[in-house]
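Hello Y.,

Per our agreement to keep a running log of every chain we model this quarter, I'm adding this entry. I've kept the format consistent with earlier entries: sequence first, then predicted structure.
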Amino acid sequence: MLYYLYDWLAESNIPGIGMFQYISFRSGAAVILALFITTAFGKKMIRILQKKQIGEEVRDLGLEGQVQKKGTPTMGGLIILFAIIVPTLLFARLDNIYILLMLITTAFLGLIGFIDDYIKVFLKNKKGLAGKFKILGQVFLGLFVAATLFLSDDVMVRENVQNPSGSDLREIVVDPETGQQKMMFVTEDVKSTKTTIPFVKKNEFDYAWLVAWAGDAASWLKWAVYALAIILIITAVSNAVNLTDGLDGLATGTSAISGATLGVLAYVSGNVIYSDYLNIMYIPHVGELTIFVAAFIGATVGFLWYNSFPAQVFMGDTGSLALGGILAVFSVIIRKEILIPLLGGIFLIENLSVVIQVMWFKYTKRKFGAGRRVFLMSPIHHHYQKKGMHEAKIVARFWIVGIILAVLTVVTLKIR
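Predicted structure for the entry above:
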């Protein structure tokens, strides 16, 4: 919104007004405003939640410190959503299709999470919104994202034009200032189902390869496969972050780390100079997402002020479903979704621990008549609690692992 104020005042002599044209300045402003919103208004929101008696209902699972959490205000994810949306509306370009997609994702999954929390807190139904409705909402969002990426003329990827022989076409370009001649690749902006894969020389994978056998039908079938992949990613990551939200600050901190990494990837992918230097896919206009992710980082880090151990507020499904969906859709937009298992390794392990526990319990119950467990309790962070590790230490160590995975994810840009 303020970007358009710059457009209006561009020819004025107001000192500093030109700063609003730079993504770096608007990103910095977004992260500061998001931090301010969460820290300044977080306390007021907590008091409102306490006044409304919106407290967490805790089942006694025999975990240390669990009973003390009873009554802690929940639905604090509203603070995070507000701190993401407001700075984005103020500092990002609202004619950017990627910004619009991220705002819709944030609001839509935040609404689903809010309904789930509302049913739990106000209707006193501990089960909350039925799982099938959550999945249905995530599937719908996946279809919407896929349709937008397919139909919007603003969604393009820049690729090298190839000769009939299959080699990249080059042309001689004369520098107008120096008169020097340079050999450069000929490029064009095209619709593409390509994405990035790590640790290989030509680090691009085209979903079209999966349906190459379909002949003429492959031209539309590849988009169906792409849509299925997007749905799977959104559903898996959103639910994984929801499962991770079981200890004070765990989901919030790991989401902030993942968000910061995706922000770096978005910035270099949307900058023609850096993408050329790193030899990665250039995606026009995607650099604007740096402002959104800056607000995301500010909101999650600011929320930690109240959510770190001992937590004064929980985000609830209002926050956790939205955070997971944001990370998923963001990674899809910047064509880095295949890096999510590495970057979001914490979320993956949390999710797998539940799947392994449930499957093994059912298998052993059928075979031996009594279910057996792989972990003392799942998700895996509760396993370490059962082993006597303090909650704060578990969270800190998971953050450290998350940082290591984030560094490895960035390193994949060069290691091939």
